[in-house]
């Protein structure tokens, strides 16, 4: 199911804005940190 | 070490069998006492430094290994006994939480709060996550009710504190699992959309008003947060999750609403969340808090590998329902139904007899994981002695 919000980026959306790191494997960890913050945001409301 | 590896594999097989609908070698035992109970148990046994109170221990993760090690050395379980669904005081204090507060006796409590007003439903529905972060967070967390720069600093501080403590817990549980031969359990968290809105956004009393005064807005809000509820457990790439990943969901509001309200407000969005959570083959563990018997026909329509932990209700009815009407290809597993009060007021023999009676109903042909009706909140005697005797009896006698 599609998840759309202006306060959360998937890696695919992020690299469109920063194509210079698209092929850098380690840079994909950015998604893990995005997800970690997302989880915390969700938890703060339950 | 080899013995521990064998034990770990034996236990892992019990759960693989249960979750795939096969009869396991024996009834698996899963213990999940509240961390508050585990801390007090260790304090009473002299495991912590003299004079330490439960309230202080909650703030000191360096003391937690000995505490968790102690309970795992004393009480039999087929899964690691850890910190449970811990609410870290360092996180909530750093943020100035109004919604989670530690009591003087060291118990993390949830007072009735709300942060979303009824006239804000439209704005919330348009982009729930953004509205939560931009508008609602500072209402629940007073330290975030400040300038944008300071807000970013407070959130970074809280995130760092949370990550450090969680890393400590992760390392500790890996050590405990290695030492006692527990299998690895991969799990995520999610919430029923209606419960999520009822918990902190609108609060228990206001959600009841909303069902009458603005039912359509409430329904739209439940639908709007479905993708968030799925994303919370499965992350951005569900295909990369381990196959044994299961989502834990405590269920809140069902026992407080009528069947009509349940069918209109609670169930439809939750069914979509459940379908999303199992879409890649992962399972879901539901904690059915209080009594949901009047909703069980609908609850039995969830598909996939679903485990239901029951606090109250009729085990005979549930077993019959699951045996006769579980959707084809799905596996519905029972846990709970064993009243934790038994341990407080009865002898060891009476506790074991109660387990025998329950197992005759729910575990005769598999499909049951032993756990209590809810997390034990105290291990004060005679609870700990009874728990020990009962767990060991199940391990040795509840064999197929």
Verbal overview:
The complex is a heterodimer of chains A (46) and B (400). Chain A is an all-alpha fold and 46 residues long. Chain A is built from 2 helices and no strands. Chain A has one domain (11-43). The mean pLDDT of chain A is 89. With 400 residues, chain B is of the alpha/beta class. In chain B, the strands form 2 sheets. Chain B has a 6-stranded parallel beta sheet with strand order 3-4-5-6-7-8, sandwiched between helices. In chain B, α14 links the parallel β5 (283-288) and β6 (305-310). Chain B is globular, with a radius of gyration of 22 Å.
Please give a quick description of this structure.
The complex is a heterodimer of chains A (46) and B (400). Chain A is mostly helical and 46 residues long.
How many β-strands of chain A, per DSSP? 0
Order of helices and strands of chain B: HHHHHEEHHHEHHHHEHEHEHEHHEH
Largest sheet of chain B: 6 strands, parallel
Shape of chain B: globular
Bulk shape of chain A:
elongated
How large, in whole angstroms, is the Cα Rg of chain B?
22 Å
- Our estimate of the beta-strand percent of chain A is under 5%
| Portion in beta strands of chain B | 5-15%
The count of helical stretches of chain B stands at 18
Query: Level of helix content of chain B?
Result: 40-55%
CATH fold label of the domain at 187-337 in chain B: TIM Barrel
Q: What is the overall pLDDT average of chain B?
A: 96
Question: At the first level of CATH, what is the class of the domain at 187-337 in chain B?
Answer: Alpha Beta
Described by its quaternary structure, the protein is: heterodimer
Query: How many E-type strands of chain B?
Result: 8
């Amino acid at each position: 199911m599609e998840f759309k919000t202006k306060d959360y980026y998937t890696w695919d959306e992020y690299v469109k804005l920063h194509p210079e790191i698209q092929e850098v494997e380690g840079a994909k960890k950015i998604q893990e940190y995005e997800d970690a913050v997302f989880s915390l945001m969700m938890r703060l409301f339950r | 070490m080899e013995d521990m590896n064998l034990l770990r594999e034996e236990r892992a097989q019990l759960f693989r069998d249960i979750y795939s609908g096969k009869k396991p070698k024996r009834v698996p035992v899963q213990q999940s006492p509240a961390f508050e109970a585990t801390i007090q148990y260790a304090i009473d046994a002299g495991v912590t430094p003299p004079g330490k109170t439960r309230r202080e221990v909650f703030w000191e993760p360096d003391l937690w290994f000995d505490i968790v090690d102690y309970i795992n050395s004393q009480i039999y379980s087929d899964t690691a006994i850890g910190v449970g669904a811990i609410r870290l005081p360092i996180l909530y204090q750093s943020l100035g939480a109004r919604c989670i507060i530690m009591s003087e006796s060291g118990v993390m409590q949830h007072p009735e709060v709300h942060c979303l007003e009824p006239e804000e439903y439209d704005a919330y529905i348009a982009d729930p996550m953004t509205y939560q972060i931009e508008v609602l967070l500072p209402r629940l967390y007073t330290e975030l009710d400040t300038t944008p720069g300071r807000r970013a600093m407070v959130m970074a501080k809280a995130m760092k504190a949370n990550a450090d403590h969680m890393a400590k817990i992760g390392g500790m549980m890996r050590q405990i699992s290695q030492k006692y031969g527990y299998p690895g359990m991969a799990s995520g968290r999610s919430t029923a959309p209606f419960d999520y809105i009822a918990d902190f956004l609108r609060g228990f009393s206001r959600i009841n008003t909303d069902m009458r005064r603005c039912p359509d807005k409430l329904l739209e809000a439940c639908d709007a947060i479905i993708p968030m509820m799925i994303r919370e457990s499965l992350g951005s790439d569900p295909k990369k999750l381990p196959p044994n990943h299961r989502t834990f969901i405590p269920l809140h509001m069902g026992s407080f609403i009528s069947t009509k309200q349940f069918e209109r407000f609670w169930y439809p969005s939750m069914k979509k969340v459940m379908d999303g959570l199992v879409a890649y083959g992962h399972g879901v563990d539901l904690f059915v808090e209080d009594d949901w018997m009047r909703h069980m026909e609908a609850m039995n329509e969830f598909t996939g590998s679903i485990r239901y932990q029951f606090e109250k209700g009729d085990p005979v009815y549930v077993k019959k329902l699951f045996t006769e009407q579980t959707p084809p290809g799905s596996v519905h597993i029972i846990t709970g139904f064993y009243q934790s009060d038994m341990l407080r007021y009865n002898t060891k023999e009476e506790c074991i007899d109660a387990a025998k009676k329950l197992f005759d109903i729910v575990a005769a042909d598999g499909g049951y994981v032993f756990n209590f009706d809810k997390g034990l909140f105290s291990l004060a005697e005679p609870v700990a002695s009874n728990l020990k005797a009962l767990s060991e009896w199940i391990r040795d006698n509840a064999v197929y």
